[in-house]
Amino acid sequence: MIWSLCALASGTFNALWTSRIKGRVQTEGALPFAASVRWGVVILLLPLAFVSAGPLPARWWAFTALAGLLESLNVWTLARGSRRDYYSTYALANTAPFFTVLLAVPFLGERVTPWLVAGILLVVAGAVWLYYRDHWSWWGLAAALAGTVGNLFSKSVIGLGSPFSHAAFCFASGACLTTALSVQQGPSGSFSRLGKNIWTNRDLAFFSFLGTVTFYLALFHIPVSRVSPLFRVSMVVAFFLSVFHLKERRDWKGRGVGAILLLLGLLLVLKG
């Protein structure tokens, strides 16, 4: 049960920092912002990774790097889709638990129960109800698939070492990719601005660090088919923050139905 709570905590921490990124993304750009937060998380993870370091097989290095690259691909597709339709892209990106349970059974041999399947369907239905705006987003679907496959790679090797080492190298791989892409697209001096952005976004990186640690601790101990839906508690937290903190109360009752579906789904996942 404690590791399921870690997955819920990870989603909560994720919502606490992602709910504050809009202005900074507009100022810095999506890729430079993603790179700065990832490097901030890597810096905070390094002491934990160093303390728990040990010999690791080649498969661990290869799959962890792939997981990091796919996680960054998830961020890039979300950014691309958000330019056209943020809400539908975000909704479809959060259908990832559906694809996770479909793939985790044949590829990882995970066992699922009817309660878990029902909970995942309710979580996905709640996510779509909350954010879908009648515009299909292939970018959102691509983000869901990239995130799903990345988590499968992570789960397949995270038990071979420390969850902290896995998280640090995974995020370092993604940080290298987002940095390379942002430097390629940006003007000269991008590297110097990256250092400044890391310091500017240190508060968001700290909450992302907490979300990352709790996520990989949960993934280390329980099936990815449970971690993925439980992480979507972030959408419920984001809904309440938008209504009560940001005062975004347009159609809040209608969107509240989605939040209720999500909560019911999370309870079933915990039971399953």
Global geometry: globular
Low-confidence regions = none
Pattern of helices and strands: HHHHHHHHHHHHH
Largest sheet: none
Question: What share of the residues lie within helices?
Answer: over 70%
Beta fraction: under 5%
What is the CA–CA distance across the termini?
11 Å
Q: Which class do the helix and strand fractions yield?
A: mainly alpha
Mean pLDDT: 88
Number of helices: 13
Q: What is the gyration radius calculated from CA atoms?
A: 18 Å
Architecture overview:
- With 272 residues, this protein is mainly α.
- The protein has 13 helices and no strands.
- It has helices at 2-18, 22-28, 30-51, 58-93, 96-108, 114-131, 138-158, 163-185, 190-200, 202-221, 224-231, 233-245, 252-271.
- The model has no long low-confidence stretch (mean pLDDT 88).
Write the layout of secondary structure elements.
Blueprint: H1 2-18, H2 22-28, H3 30-51, H4 58-93, H5 96-108, H6 114-131, H7 138-158, H8 163-185, H9 190-200, H10 202-221, H11 224-231, H12 233-245, H13 252-271
